[in-house]
Amino acid sequence: MSDIVAIGGGQAGFSFVQKLRSLGCNQKITLVCGEDMVPYQRPPLSKKFLLGEMSKQQLLLRPESYYDDKNINLIIGKKALRIDRNLMEIELEDGVKLPYKKLFLGIGSSPKKLSDKRIYENKCVHYIRNFKDVELVSKEFNIKKSLLIIGGGYIGLEIAAVAKKRGLNVSIIESKDRILKRVTSERVGDYFRKLHKENGVKIKESVEIDDFLFEGKTFKGVLTNQGETIPGDFIIAGIGIKPNSKIAEESGLLVENGILVDEYCRTNDPNIFAAGDCASFIYQGKRIRLESVGNAIEQSEVAALATQGGRFNYKALPWFWSDQFNVKLQIAGLNSGYTDVVERILGDRSSYWYYKGDKFIAVDAINDPVSYMVGKKLIEKNQTPSQKDIAEESFDLKNLLKG
């Protein structure tokens, strides 16, 4: 019998068991990975790995020997189907039942799917979420093929950049009136629209798909609501994700756009914890989920401490990044509800500082690590720089951290 069972082979599950052992925990630990791989990084899948600049081995968070060395029982390629909270055990898809004293859920999220059945029968649509997804789509990345990307968010733009580098013809279809509308300001959206167009990506905004076009069983493209035919050989859809909370909800855990957790990453069952994409928590008075590596690591470590009797409150400091062509975007904070954006342009570096009323809440830094670093620290300290200082090119941002 394992004292602690963790479900999830991503960043959250790995960070949880790693933290337990670093704390000196000598309990029996089992880590269940639904995929046929030991825990690995997912962000590089749509970037360096798809470009062929990173190997499968380099994706691994640790080699398989690490788990033997740390006496962590690793179960690979078996999904958890049910949680029985009364018996305190989980059931795997092969019928094996694992008892637990403490249970951790790092079960992540899944892509939202397009609804037309024909594109699945034809196997012309792909999603980028795990290693197998990328293995499949990489076979389509042949020069001169035409790719249709549905969704102008970060994942769609990252895939577009990789596809252009691989020599494909690329079109992005976005139903909103601009790309990145859900996540950033119009100015940042304008920057990335220009970047992609300069690199040969076609962007269609305020466009919806009326029909998927076939010749026999061969996919040929889409017909838009504006009557335009956009040719394509295959589709990658990046239209959002949803938390993998079904197994939790069926067991009676509270779910609201994710598994509800408190400041210790504990669910409404004191013996079950959750972290990462699947977990919903309170941030600045509102319940949110954060889909980021940083959040997965930090929440998982708080959960590990809590299983050992520690009481370290999780205080989210959101941060994200995106690599597109030769541009690195770094984001600190959440800009939801912003009222003002202050632009700071220094040559090929730029940053966009978000204010909600008189409070600084987030920064988008483009090829500008100093602005990112300063902005992140100011958010952590709950300090607000004056908009006048930020807008002044000659002002040294590092002065904001003095004193």
Task: Describe the protein in words.
The mean pLDDT is 94. This protein has helices at residues 11-22, 48-51, 56-59, 64-69, 117-121, 131-138, 154-165, 186-198, 246-250, 293-307, 369-380, 387-391; strands at 4-7, 29-33, 72-76, 80-84, 89-92, 97-99, 102-105, 109-111, 125-126, 146-150, 169-173, 202-204, 209-215, 218-224, 229-231, 234-237, 241-243, 259-260, 272-274, 279-283, 286-288, 319-324, 327-333, 340-346, 349-356, 359-366. Helix 1 crosses helix 10. The strands form 7 sheets. Strands 3-2-1-7-19 form a 5-stranded parallel β-sheet. Strands 9-16-10-11-12 form a 5-stranded parallel β-sheet. With 403 residues, it is an alpha/beta fold.
Topology (elements, then pairings):
Elements: E1 4-7, H1 11-22, E2 29-33, H2 48-51, H3 56-59, H4 64-69, E3 72-76, E4 80-84, E5 89-92, E6 97-99, E7 102-105, E8 109-111, H5 117-121, E9 125-126, H6 131-138, E10 146-150, H7 154-165, E11 169-173, H8 186-198, E12 202-204, E13 209-215, E14 218-224, E15 229-231, E16 234-237, E17 241-243, H9 246-250, E18 259-260, E19 272-274, E20 279-283, E21 286-288, H10 293-307, E22 319-324, E23 327-333, E24 340-346, E25 349-356, E26 359-366, H11 369-380, H12 387-391
Helix pairs in contact: 1-10
Defining key terms:
403 residues; 5-stranded parallel sheet
Mean pLDDT: 94
What is the straight-line distance between the termini? 53 Å
Q: What is the overall silhouette?
A: globular
Strand order of the largest sheet: 3-2-1-7-19
Helix content: 25-40%
Count of runs of 4 or more consecutive helical residues = 12
Strand content: 25-35%
Global Rg = 22 Å
How is the quaternary structure best described? single chain
The count of β-strands is 26
